[in-house]
Fold:
Amino acid sequence: MKYTAIALLLSTTAALVHPTVIPETVRVTQGIASYYRTDAPFSTVSVGNTNVVDVAALTDHSLLIEAHKMGTTNMLLFDKDKAPIRNVTVIVDSQGSGFVRIHNKALINSFTTFSCWEGGCQFVGENTVAEPAPLPRGHYSSTYQPNGPAPSLPQGNP
Structure:
């Protein structure tokens, strides 16, 4: 009975000293700032390797993650009592790896870019182009047909 009470006391004390820390993984792209939001308020953030990422607190629920170089590090978020509430593994991929570009059907040179991996995709940017672009002065629009007649060229002085 005595040993059971001591074991129960030690396990209760260990639970108070080491509260449940929610693990999480975030993937970001090198050279791109990313927004991170948590449902629990935090007061302090510690980054494992600031050569990989830097963070700036925006509010007590959100951060800006700046990815500097490829690699993996972590962020620990602490509450106002300095107890850890999140352990976020941050994986930084290089630009160009895992990018998906979705073109706009109406404007083919307009597209939205996402950085994708196994767990999902992250918005990277959008390129919107006004189409159709005007032809240079003195040029005419014609359609090339592989087996048809050659397009006619404008006559006269350029």
